[in-house]
Amino acid sequence: MKTKDSVKTIRSRFTPLATTLSLLPLCALAQTPADVAMDVTTTVATSSPVITLNWRAVSGACDPIYITRTELTATGRGSARNFTLATNSVTLADTNAVTGRRYEYVVNQRYNFSGSTWVVRRASLTSGSEFPLTENRGRVLLLVDNTMSSALAGELETLADDLTLDGWVVVRKDVARMSVSPDDLTAAAGVARTAELAAVRSEVTAFYNADTANSRAVIIIGRVPVPYSGKIMPDGHTDHNGAWPTDMYYADINGSWTDTSVNWSAPGRLNNIPGDGKFDRNQAPTALELEVGRIDFAGIAGNGASEAAQIRRYLNRNHAYRHALAPFDNINREVLVDDNFGYFNGEAFAAVGWNTASATVGRGNSRAGKWFANVSGRPTLFGYGCGGGGYSSASGVGTSTDFATRPSRVVFKALFGSYFGDWNYNDGFLRAAIGGPETSTGLASFWVNRPNWDFSGTAMGGSIGSTLRYSSDRSIHRQILGDPTLRLQHRPAVKDLTATPTADGLRLTWSVTGSGEIGYHVYRTDAATGITTRVTGQSVSTNSPSGQPINSTQFVNSGSEAGKQFTFTVRPVFREATPGGTYYDLGLGAFVSATQPGPRLAVESIISRRTVAGGAYDLVLGGIATEPRATDGRLTLIVRFNQNVVGGQLSLTGTATVDSTEASGRELTIRLRNVGDRQTLLVNLANISGSQWTQPESFSVSARILGGDTDRNGIIETADARLAASLINANRGQLIGTARLCDFTNDGKVNANDVRYIMSRRNLRLN
To answer: Which residues contact 718 (CB under 8 A, 6 or more apart)?
Structure first.
């Protein structure tokens, strides 16, 4: 296998793309690809002109400047508008741009590279002013090689949680591992290959069709069958002409992928004949419905780490990046350019790197350097590297072995060179680039030239997958190695989220992220229905692009939904200012589950119940009212609450012995004996919960005991005897009505004996 070509050899093998135009006037020669980069930047406002573009001039440029502006909508590319500017123009004030929308600007200008060769200066910038919040990112399918499911169970669960907290709805499907080698050219292999690819695509199609409006992305994890298609050689090598691997087969749901017309005999996997399970298409037949990326380390040496271990490292790194954990809490937001080609027959490959810098991290935040020599400390957000290539190398950049053994501190890697754009080889350079030691930081890699790859949409919050999905170029060799749902900016979650029942409702509290958020949104998911609703602010619109988040670090979920189970998610809101403009974004969510409380548990009354002739007679205790009847040392107290009660412990302060307790509905019945006279008995209740208030509560209730105190004022006087005598006269001694209050002798009658009892205790008071 060829591992490295010299620049001279590569130049002879690449198919020249420039056209000789000797009749056009000569202009000044730019010295390096950096000099032909447009270096487009923008300023945005909320009043006309909303968007103003600026770019760097090249001395002596010959052609006018052509700009195409395309509106980017939620479903793809909208209407376009063209501008033609004079040769020496360096700015465009777009007075027709509208606040709250996103636009892609493509700027082109030709200038003379030499007497016979021209270079096209081309750059893209995605821009917008106050672009509204994206709350729901859509549905994502985790398509997992089933031989990895067990070994990576924890990491896959973490990935699903992280995606959910980022606003995705996660669907997972485990599929059979790839079993047919692309080098197997037998007829039986063609049949088997066709079947295993169709089986996987049917799962993707089912996922998409389940919700076509919201299905957005597929993350392939492990050795899921690799599709091949076409007869191409985009690197210009005739010995590399044939079928190339393409996951676009899974991204293009509605297109027809035939296997009938290409009939090309070539060595091994490049071979493509009808019926062999390799498709005919050089371009995806229709616009892509899904963004697709692959995390696949099969056949990658990994410096001794197993395939599963390499995926585990990647997923752990992915988690750290999403949560802004070390080392991703301190990223150099710049672009490193490692150019080992320079000019190439009218192509300036590395201009992609320089243009990406101005579009994503800003003019001046780029530098030339050597890949491994210059990237060893803080992670660098983006890197571009090109050089004479082999399947596992790019001259001047590095090799697959370098990626396996040496820390690479570039997060997103744009790479270009011969052969390795065909990524499905053992130790394939693009797949190795996102692996490496624990200290490496790679998360995605791309083969970026022929055609050039536009990353400008990521500056306005777009995922790296969207840069492929919405591209007008659907060449089948364009591939994302890594998680396509990642963005250039991930903000952390709030900290210390808790939910506490209060009398006002369920109170959520949290701590700030410390990353400059402008507020917070709270989302509530009903456990019974699964329906999620935002319960803060207002609807997101161009007039309210942030949805008016709250600026407090607490929120009370009030209402009359007592007993309902909810999961609350709190997400910080940020206003991002990037080279593309301004937009609103959400940090990761933090969640907590809790039961909505009803009214706080409270004691409504304490009742003393005594059963005598004629039935039970209740006295309500409270304030200074005493219980005058406990002359036999027995007392039944009923504590009545505002809701049904459960649990609890009881203790007494005073003289009494507990016979039994019983909770029934709203009442707690306490049966006492040996109740001392002339005391205030305290009943202490702890850890009692209610049916609507689940937090344990404690109460102390009192019962004043003074036998014979018929008027219940805490002192026995002649008036108490008169009251008893009047009841005797009124009820003729019968124990009816309030007369039951005065049967102190417990003989079932109210008579003179009871009056004498009272008189014998005259002037006694509560102790």
So the answer is: 759, 762
